[in-house]
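4.2 Preliminary Data

To establish feasibility before requesting continued support, the project team ran the inverse folding procedure on a target of 277 residues. The structure was first converted into the token representation described in Section 3, and no sequence information of any kind was made available to the design step. The complete token record follows.
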């Protein structure tokens, strides 16, 4: 006899691995899936945050050379040269960008997480689904706006880039707001090309995803799903996440992600409102 909890966890891990990278929401679609499977919204949110540990592993392995190179630049980090332009300061600038954006994301993300906990405990199931849908639509609108921006193909990041990306990424802990979509959109607004924007977003996902998993673990312990099922889900998200990164980079300029967000978000809003009635 098949174990329903194990199967649901496995599917959730696979979905996390696929949808962590494209700017079409991660927390939102998984929360909706787990809620549809009968899971309590609060437990669903906690489980989804915990699954970020898997995709953090996949991004670290995929970008292992970049991660090693950035860590080697730590001794070269000096006051006043953190965001220095030019090839000599490129690694240092990336390290500074990741560090500043991660700290800002952590501060704002913790506040957003606390707000999320209060929201989930107060909202009924259908209302919560409708709220997630509205956040998905907002993400789609942001992506559509960024899609029409004229690019100047910047490569070096600045302190302003780090502060903006970090602040909006902290808010993206809310289900329905795509972390990848938000960060890449901000970088597109800041005149990075698509490939560079996604690369920085992927690198930034590593410390942030580990932080999200740790925050969930410290706040509520291991998710209220069987330990074996949780481990299977994390492993699945790591393996599938690694395989999906390369695929996304190949189609980054071919798929209209904003349309997917708005379409599925609208369906979620309508469905949630019907359930809430």
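Position-by-position output of the design step:
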């Amino acid at each position: 006899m098949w174990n329903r909890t194990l199967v649901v966890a496995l599917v959730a891990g696979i979905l996390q691995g696929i949808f962590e990278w494209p700017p079409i929401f991660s927390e939102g679609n998984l929360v909706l899936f787990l809620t549809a499977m009968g899971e309590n919204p609060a437990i669903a949110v906690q489980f989804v945050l915990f699954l970020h540990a898997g995709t953090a592993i996949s991004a670290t392995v995929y970008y292992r050379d970049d991660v090693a190179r950035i860590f080697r630049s730590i001794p070269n980090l000096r006051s006043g040269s953190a965001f220095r332009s030019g090839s000599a300061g490129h690694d240092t600038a990336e390290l500074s960008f990741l560090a500043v954006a991660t700290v800002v994301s952590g501060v704002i993300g913790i506040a957003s997480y606390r707000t999320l906990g209060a929201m989930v405990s107060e909202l009924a199931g259908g209302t919560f689904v409708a709220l997630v849908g509205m956040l998905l639509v907002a993400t789609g609108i942001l992506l559509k706006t960024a899609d029409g921006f004229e690019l100047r193909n910047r490569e070096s990041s600045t302190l302003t880039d780090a502060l903006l990306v970090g602040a909006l990424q902290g808010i993206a802990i809310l289900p329905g707001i795509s972390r990848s979509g938000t960060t890449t959109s901000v970088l597109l607004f800041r005149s990075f090309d698509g490939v560079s924007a996604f690369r920085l977003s992927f690198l930034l996902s590593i410390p942030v995803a580990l932080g999200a998993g740790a925050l969930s673990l410290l706040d509520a312990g291991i998710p209220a799903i069987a330990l074996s099922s949780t481990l299977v889900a994390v492993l699945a998200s790591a393996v599938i996440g690694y395989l999906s990164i390369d695929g996304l980079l190949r189609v980054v300029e071919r798929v209209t992600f904003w349309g997917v967000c708005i379409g599925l978000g609208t369906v979620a809003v309508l469905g949630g409102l019907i359930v809430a009635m």
